[in-house]
Design brief:
Elements lengths: L3 E7 L10 H15 L6 E6 L2 E7 L4 H9 L6 E8 L3 H19 L3 E8 L8 H15 L4 E2 L6 E7 L4 E4 L3 E2 L11 E5 L5 H11 L3 E8 L6 H18 L2 E7 L1 H10 L5 H19 L4 E3 L12 H8 L6 E2 L7 H11 L2 H4 L21 H8 L4 H10 L2 E5 L2
Parallel strand pairs: 5-6, 5-7, 10-11, 10-13, 11-12, 13-14
Antiparallel strand pairs: 1-3, 1-4, 2-3, 4-8, 4-9, 7-8, 12-15
Helix pairs in contact: 3-4, 5-6, 5-10, 7-8, 8-9, 8-13
Bound molecules: adenosine-5'-triphosphate (ATP) and magnesium ion.
Adenosine-5'-triphosphate binds next to α5 and β11.
Length: 393
């Protein structure tokens, strides 16, 4: 036994899904397998509400834990050792395990917490705890029991055909497995917000695809490169996805030439939304996702959001709408997009930025301005010119 490393993966909210539970568990198992496909020699299996990963000892177990923790739907992960479900065998493994921890970390105190998932096991949980605790005390002479503040809380989980021993857990992000909640099209800029917005929707099980707008040659190829790298970080959570890249410059030029300067930003935003919606439609995305946040900038006042929304009929998800910027930044740091997002490259929104953008646009006025443009032709041409980039984590 224990020729392999064993991980116990807890499923969080997936476990609450009632009748659909087997479906969610299967999706989760599938996603974990995909994340671990580089690690040849791992086995991922569901059993009694948990997922067990067995990995050859030659593989980097910490890297496997890290990859697994990025799978949405995973609540937590523990590295375990196993034993035959029999008290002497469990005791022997527990002693070995604790001796290892004494050597590694100089552990001095412990407490056993036992659980029997197998109710046919002849000894009840508290008694298992006492028996294993006694065996550890005999086997590890320097250890003492501390029930209030132990250095190690040693879990013993007795299941049908195996018992597992572990301590500590690595937190996952929770959420739901990717693919259990449709697909959304994120409008991905190089900023801090939109990658976080995409990540939050993906965490609820939504597959994502992205559209990015640039204004080449006003924006540089390096700026786009940055967005691709940002998308790559997202893909390490969301799986491989397509990014549709569009040059918005022809539309921006038309707007600047024909419409009031203070409306430029809101008009550009409405075009972005309509183009994104059209690409979403072609690619089976049922919703749009943006990083908009109430009141953050002129184009994100309540009035501006209403006018932006009126440009499309697909639902627009704005998961950051009520968050404070500091909290969005924290999240960006946590998921690893922040450092990339703050790299200083130009964005198409900052090209032709009006001096005094309107903060309270009125839809009738905006529609009147748009009537001076051949919107449909501009949108169609933009969609036609898309470049598709394959994004991998
Ligand atoms: P972000 O940090 O995500 O860029 P922001 O606070 O800078 O957001 P805006 O620039 O007004 O706000 O953009 C609002 C939203 O519009 C963004 O979150 C994103 O979803 C979308 N967006 C903005 N610029 C682009 C772009 N160049 N390509 C694709 N989507 C964009
Ligand atoms: Mg931006």
């Amino acid at each position: 036994m224990n020729e392999e490393n064993i991980l116990i993966v807890r499923c969080g909210e997936v476990a609450l899904k009632g009748m659909n539970k087997p479906y969610f568990e299967r999706m989760l198992q599938d996603r974990i397998r995909r994340n671990l496909k580089e690690f040849k020699g791992t086995d991922v299996r569901r059993q009694e509400g948990l997922i067990f990963i067995r990995a050859d000892k030659s593989l980097d177990i910490n890297a496997i834990i890290k990859e697994t923790s990025k799978v949405f739907g995973v609540a937590s992960i523990s590295k375990a050792v196993e034993a035959e479900p029999e008290l002497n065998a469990i005791g022997a493994e527990a002693v070995k395990y604790m001796n290892g921890l004494i050597e590694e970390r100089g552990v001095k105190t412990f407490k056993v917490e036992a659980k029997r998932a197998d109710k046919n096991f002849p000894v009840k949980s508290p008694e298992i705890g006492r028996i294993i605790g006694a065996k550890v005390l005999i086997g590890c002479k320097i250890l003492k029991v501390d029930v209030h503040n132990p250095d190690v809380l040693l879990h013993v989980d007795v299941r049908h055909d195996r018992a597992y021993i572990y301590e500590g857990k690595v937190a996952g992000f929770g959420g739901l497995p990717l693919g259990t909640n449709g697909k959304g099209m994120v409008l991905l800029s190089g900023g801090i917000d939109s990658p976080v917005a995409a990540w939050m929707m993906a965490k609820r099980g939504m597959l994502i695809e992205a559209v990015h707008f640039h204004s080449y040659p006003y924006t540089s190829p390096r700026a786009q490169q940055k967005v691709e790298e940002l998308a790559g970080i997202l893909a390490s959570y969301c799986g491989r996805f397509k990014m549709h890249v569009i040059n918005l410059l022809p539309i921006q030029e038309q707007i600047v030439a024909n419409c009031p300067e203070e409306e430029t930003t809101i008009l550009v935003r409405r075009f972005m939304m309509r183009i994104a919606e059209k690409i979403a439609e072609k690619n089976d995305c049922m919703m749009l996702i943006t990083g908009e946040n109430l009141g953050q900038v002129a184009s994100q006042t309540a009035e501006a959001l209403v006018v932006t929304d009126a440009s499309v009929s697909k639902p627009v998800m704005r998961p950051l709408i009520a968050m404070d910027k500091v909290d969005i930044m924290e999240k960006a740091k946590e998921i690893g997009t922040y450092e990339k997002s703050i790299e200083p490259y130009e964005d198409c929104c900052t090209v032709f930025l009006p001096k005094h953008p309107t903060t309270k646009p009125r839809l009738e006025r905006i529609l009147e301005s748009e009537s001076r443009l051949d919107c449909q032709a501009l949108i169609d041409a933009a969609v036609e010119s898309e470049e598709i980039i394959d994004i991998r984590g």
